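User: My collaborator sent over this chain with a note saying "see what the structure looks like." That's all I know about it. Can you take a look?
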Amino acid sequence: MKLLSSDVVELEHEYKHLSEVVKSVKENSEDILDYLNSSEPSSTFFSFFDTGSREENNSNFGQLVYWYQKTLRDVVKNLGNDTFTGREKMFNFLEYLRLTCCNENYQINENDFADVSLIPELSYSRMNAALLGKSVCSAQSKFLKDLITYSKALPYGRVTTQTIFVPKGLHDIVVLNSEDENRAITLDPQNYVGSVSSVKRGFDCKKRLLDDSFEGKGFRTTKKDLLKARETVLDYCVRKYGIDKLAHRDFQGASPEEQIEKIERFISSYTTNCKHPLNFDTISVQGHEFEVGKFFEMACHACGIPYELEVPSKEDRAHTVIVLPTMNRKVDFTQKPKLATSTKENGPIYVKTPVQD
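Assistant: Without extra context I'll predict from the sequence alone. Here is the result:
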């Protein structure tokens, strides 16, 4: 599988834009530079941008394209091969993004602290979603579009990303257009939380697109479909990121309760939020940044510990509550949005956690 030249051009555009933003950060914002270096995967990823010379930038871009293509190929090979139907491939990809790509902290108060508005700009590339594991809706939608396209999950018709108006601003989704372009189904990877309702809610009504108006319907599914996809994706992820080896080496115990205790201790020891107050609670595993609740899911699966997801009332991706039925216990990894504010122009960042209603 080789990337189409048009996709390489799009990646080059994203790379140049990110390089410009990284350059601006280096010159003007020590706070945001600290944020970019708040975890080892983030520091490594952003080191590829704005290295100074054109030759180095060209070399770095070539490495990122190779890395992206390799990731795309591996995910398609394991979760989008011909043993799956088109629908199964799409559910696999939604689950993969849910587990491996945490949302950027996009609820930062940009008006109070201007520098922080750069953070969403630094997270819009599909490379952020695929290689780093943290991004905004645009990146996740573009990565999902590529997965669907290269796996041939939609053999007829056209796969695109579209920008729509939502109450809080603009939001990117994936649109599956029928062959005659008269029907369209929408997928919203950023707001998929592992529930049937979050799939069906994929903008199941008329929405005004920036360039058009169309009737978009959410993809229809069942809980059985999603549980099957989850099992498939978990099997793949625990192998890919070596969590099966971690389970064998670090999470062994005389009982499931003892294993859970060791998993929680491991997460507590390696959580990276302390390096910057605006970063969500994440953990770095094999060069990838995971939200702690998603890592806990994968660790439970690797240890053979049964668990269930509790669907949040607001269905926020940052809400992760794991139910352990055999232990009659819930583990809450819900991440409350951290807002950046400043008491004076160019003043220090103050972080507050808003009261949840």
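A starting point for your reply to your collaborator: Residues 223-341 form one domain.
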